[in-house]
Amino acid sequence: xxxxxxxxxxxxxxxxxxxxxxxxxxxxxxxxxxxxxxxxxxxxxxxxxxxxxxxxxxxxxxxxxxxxxxxxxxxxxxxxxxxxxxxxxxxxxxxxxxxxxxxxxxxxxxxxxxxxxxxxxxxxxxxxxxxxxxxxxxxxxxxxxxxxxxxxxxxxxxxxxxxxxxxxxxxxxxxxxxxxxxxxxxxxxxxxxxxxxxxxxxxxxxxxxxxxxxxxxxxxxxxxxxxxxxxxxxxxxxxxxxxxxxxxxxxxxxxxxxxxxxxxxxxxxxxxxxxxxxx
Length: 279
Fold this sequence. Notes:
With 279 residues, the protein is α/β, with parallel strands linked by helices. It is built from ten helices and ten strands.
């Protein structure tokens, strides 16, 4: 019954009619305000009020801030899971509400903190990242290598033909870190123009994390990356770093620029984390 009810649920967001062209679109938040439906903050204010920023095609952007600052909500608006209650989110110069949703989603790869664990044959669990064509094994392997998953997959009983999920006969149960690398491989397999990653390496060791971020930094110039992370050492090489605090963008610039601000929020957070690692 739950499945039937879910499938019968109508989309509350109105679909647009504008189809995006083949180019990687720029992103702009113009005076964006937002409050989740039916729930405002205790002060009666929106989570965001008049948020403004631009992301050029191909930029590598990091979003940082303490928990609850509004980082994930920004990506939900960008993904059009919700529409803003004020202002406008522009994609490729168009109001996102006027864009044909499937046209936009073809350009996006999204990896959330609560990534899916597809209990399928391994190659299909990665290949499901792009269902426009049958699963391409060489492409699956390349994606797994870039995500740091190839080595442990090769060690499994049937490599890329191994069944995931120990509730299935002959199935294996990956560790949390392995599941996360499989999710990353799925994103690399999709190879979208815009990659949105929300804490993509929370369950991965620091060495593997650095290798994965190196892959993201070395993407072609037309690939946009929006990365949410609490590990400041891995975001400092981003083209720009957005510091979100209390529903506001407190700072926006590259690492060098933000560290030059003597009393800056980013400098304080970065220094605090660096000292904790030193201890």
